[in-house]
Amino acid sequence: MAYIKAKPVPVTVITGYLGAGKTTLLNRILTHKHGKQVAVIVNEFGEVGIDAQLVIDTNEEILEMNNGCICCTVRGDLIRIVNSLMQRRDKFDYLVIETTGLADPAPVIQSFFVDEIMRSHTELDAVITVIDAKHIWYHWDSYEAQEQIAFADVVLINKIDLISKTQLVELEKRLRKINAFAKFYYTQNCDLNIDCVLGIEAFDLKNTLSIDPNFLDEANHEHDQSIYSVAIAEMGTVNSDKLTNWLNQLTQTQGQNLFRLKGVLNVDAEDRRFVFQGIHMLLDGRPGRPWKPGESRRNELIFIGRSLDENQLKQEFRNCLI
Ligand SMILES: Nc1nc2c(ncn2[C@@H]2O[C@H](COP(=O)(O)OP(=O)(O)OP(=O)(O)O)[C@@H](O)[C@H]2O)c(=O)[nH]1
């Protein structure tokens, strides 16, 4: 295989639990004028690729990995994608990987050291973990959430607008108990100086090995199998009033089990796509970019959580169609 430049590509891994603000941070990185040509790998949980649609339109190279969780497919897909990117090495000088909210970052980090091509052509710059200051409280027991905190070089305590100062102090204390090494920033909408997250050379394998001496040898990890996703992809025009009623009712009655919901919809045959986002009981909907001429106006929704009834969700969505 021929590689054009020998200098290793710095890589930033963005992790954080469902809905924490990873895509928000990614969009900030992509719009910031840092002079770097950034390639992006977005991994998401679920069959429909909504995240890549929510990443703003730029000239950057954006690759999706939707067929599973990055931490499980890491030795296959991630390595394959990075290897193929390396053959277009002249097109970018930085790589950002956004993992799913349910990914354990450990196997992702491992792959930079155990795979020969990854090891010689990339250099892990930092693991950035975004924390949803309001909702992390529901997920302290989650193994993945704990791993995400433990492996962070930088922690963004995000959504500080949704909690009090006292809660923030309490939260930071709790996070520091899991990770004493990381640098902490408080953010709203991941608004911070991009120099705090890109090109910081913060990752140090020695720190990781001090947390877990067997880190490079571990092959298996487990997921909480009770969390799964339901994806809906259907043509049709959605009635906005019916949709609002349904989503409000859904988040009110099932918010506890509904960790994350998002969708890109054709509402009231408007010129612009309608984008909604939800995290537990918090719901937000707004117009997105215009539909492109000739673009298929497919409604795509994803629900992630526990005890979700796929048939019921699909039926209730269909009831919102005109
Ligand atoms: N109130 C508030 N909302 C925020 C903040 N940051 C992000 N959000 C909103 O939180 C929602 C989720 O943000 P994303 O950036 O999509 O989160 P994510 O971590 O990429 O989500 P997944 O990839 O689905 O796990 C969106 O509606 C954001 O607009 C913040 O600081 N405060």
UniProtKB/TrEMBL annotation:
The keyword Chaperone applies. This is GTP-binding protein. InterPro entries: CobW-likC_sf, CobW-like_C, CobW/HypB/UreG_nucleotide-bd, P-loop_NTPase, Zinc-reg_GTPase_activator. Pfam families: cobW (PF02492), CobW_C (PF07683). Belongs to the SIMIBI class G3E GTPase family. ZNG1 subfamily. Gene3D superfamilies: CobW-like, C-terminal domain (3.30.1220.10), P-loop containing nucleotide triphosphate hydrolases (3.40.50.300). Transmembrane segments: none annotated. The lineage of its organism: Bacteria, Bacillati, Cyanobacteriota, Cyanophyceae, Oscillatoriophycideae.
